[in-house]
Amino acid sequence: MTGLSEDLRLPVPCPSCGSHLMRVSRVKNPDDKVHCASCGKMICLWHEAQTVLRQGPGSQSEALIESAVNRNR
């Protein structure tokens, strides 16, 4: 999924490895799966990830990290 996907950072870590870096299809259909970029575990669907992103980070430091990583989204 490398050439057809992009990475983003979610405020919620992967339950398996703790990474915040996720991978989603560039198409971003609501039912596209979001996978952990580190271990490959399916985390959620794109529409669920959008809800988490709209709710925002839990702290100011998380907000700074997410804005840096997600600046092209």
Please provide a written account of the structure.
- 27% of the residues lie in helices and 25% in strands.
- The chain is of the alpha+beta class and 73 residues long.
- The longest helix is centred in the last third of the chain and has 10 residues, at 46-55.
- The protein starts with a strand and ends with a helix.
List the helices and strands and how they pair.
Blueprint (H helix, E strand, L loop, with lengths): L4 E5 L11 E5 L7 E4 L5 E4 H10 L4 H10 L4
Antiparallel strand pairs: 1-2, 2-3, 3-4
Summary, kept brief:
The protein has 73 residues and is α+β, with helices and mostly antiparallel strands.
Q: Helical percent range?
A: 25-40%
Number of helices: 2
Strand content: 15-25%
- Per the principal axes of the C-alpha atoms, what is the gross shape? globular
Strand order of the largest sheet: 1-2-3-4
Stretches with pLDDT under 50, minimum 5 residues: none
Question: Which structural category fits the helices and strands?
Answer: alpha+beta
Number of domains: 1
**SSE succession:** EEEEHH
Biggest sheet details? 4 strands, antiparallel
- Total strands: the figure is 4
| Oligomeric state of this protein | single chain
Write down the Rg: 11 Å
Mean pLDDT: 87
Distance between the termini: 17 Å
